[in-house]
């Protein structure tokens, strides 16, 4: 029972209930007004018709009364003539008026019209050439607005002609209720009107129910979305306002869902990063600790073994330093809210600088380092520190992948409004599968894993820095023949 009340209360508060209430109230008001106007106009039509058909009545009666009136308005002859007329048509009231409209002869209800006066203007309105019907007059005896017929008439010794006035609807006028009971036209009109109103009401309720049903569907979808059902979508249907709203909701839901997916993916990557990092830090640390422990325990180790242990310790320390450096770069690149530095610098100088730093490493690996760029190369606009890292990472990979006797070439040349930089090696190359994977964080090729060096972060950092500069790292490789890694920067 309480539930039922709750439901009724909910429905009465709904948009549907409000629309229906306003609509039905409007419809009721409109139909009552229309019915009132129709019935009163209908009645007016009856009076107009009555006046129009009997407009000449007073003229005809004036001809009959002319002779008796010669003896005076109140003469027995005049009264006899009037009585004869009224016996034929009892619905008519007959009066004789002087030129000012004063009642001088009353043949309707004697005595009721003492000192009565009729406005002459109203009489003249009806006597005009094309009177606007119905012309109503306040009847001398009944004091009601009535239709009438009037004719000018001369009587007695009066200098100016007076009027013979015939009030036509002297009988009681019918009430609206009586008309309903007795007039078939009124009744038919009323029944047709009522049917039309009921039909319009029912159609309206149905239409509003259909309209608000789409709103309810939309609301239900939004509510389900709000509690976490992000797959909610609405069939937009027609291209009206609700259709637009549904489409906008679908777009919004798709955006939020995509952002949530991106957040989840980010979260997954972060967890993976932490797991990989702890592993990458632990391995060299364990090894470093092992060698240091051995050095501490045995102080009579042969000099050669001591040197080998110290070299291993240094190599592991290098690996940790390298990892820490990659991580700090990664943190800088990942900080998307931090705007990129825009430096204007000479790429040729930067290339010479970095290649210079790699010379000892290349010399040791017996790899030839070649710079292939014109000194007239235009300056570029980019984040100097990050581009430095890009070149260092690419060179590091190229030198590491190139066997003794090979060459690593760093080329740069201007194309249109950009400068393209490429690091080309004659190293071991990458297979097609590896090419698609090398830019993922922590991915290392099987060959480099055997080597033990590297964290698998270098190319992912290069890729992200390129993306943040609005360019793309382009990798081409032939296994056994070499690799070309290229990107471009805008000329300042
Ligand atoms: N020019 C290249 N030729 C052949 N293999 C390459 C080349 N560049 C990168 N690789 C391989 O692709 C993988 C990913 O390289 P990336 O630079 O991302 O990681 P890394 O070199 O292992 O570690 P890091 O650069 O972080 O020290 C590595 O296994 C690397 O050996
Ligand atoms: Mg690398």
Q: Key features?
A:
alpha+beta; 492 residues; 12 strands; binds magnesium ion; 14 helices; 5-stranded antiparallel beta sheet; Heat Shock Protein 90
Secondary-structure blueprint:
Blueprint: H1 2-13, H2 15-53, H3 57-69, H4 76-88, E1 93-97, E2 103-106, H5 120-127, E3 136-138, E4 145-153, E5 162-167, H6 176-182, H7 184-226, H8 241-297, H9 303-334, E6 343-345, H10 347-364, E7 368-373, E8 380-382, H11 384-401, E9 407-415, E10 418-425, H12 432-437, H13 446-451, H14 458-468, E11 474-478, E12 482-490
Parallel strand pairs: 7-9
Antiparallel strand pairs: 1-2, 1-5, 3-4, 4-5, 6-8, 9-10, 10-12, 11-12
Helix pairs in contact: 2-7, 3-4, 6-7, 7-8, 8-9, 9-14, 10-11, 11-14
Task: Describe the protein's architecture and organization.
InterPro entries: HAMP_dom (IPR003660), HATPase_C_sf (IPR036890), HATPase_dom (IPR003594), His_kinase_dom (IPR005467), HisK_dim/P_dom (IPR003661), HisK_dim/P_sf (IPR036097), Sig_transdc_His_kin-like_C (IPR004358), TCS_sensor_his_kinase (IPR050428). The chain crosses the membrane at residues 189-211. Its EC number is 2.7.13.3. By secondary structure, the protein is α+β, with helices and mostly antiparallel strands. Helices cover 58% and strands 14% of the residues. The strands form three sheets. It has a five-stranded antiparallel β-sheet. The chain is rod-shaped and about 170 Å long. The model has no long low-confidence stretch (mean pLDDT 88). The protein binds adenosine-5'-triphosphate and magnesium ion. Adenosine-5'-triphosphate (ATP) is lined by residues 322, 326, 393, 396-398, 401, 425, 427-430, 438, 443-445, 448, 454-460, 483.
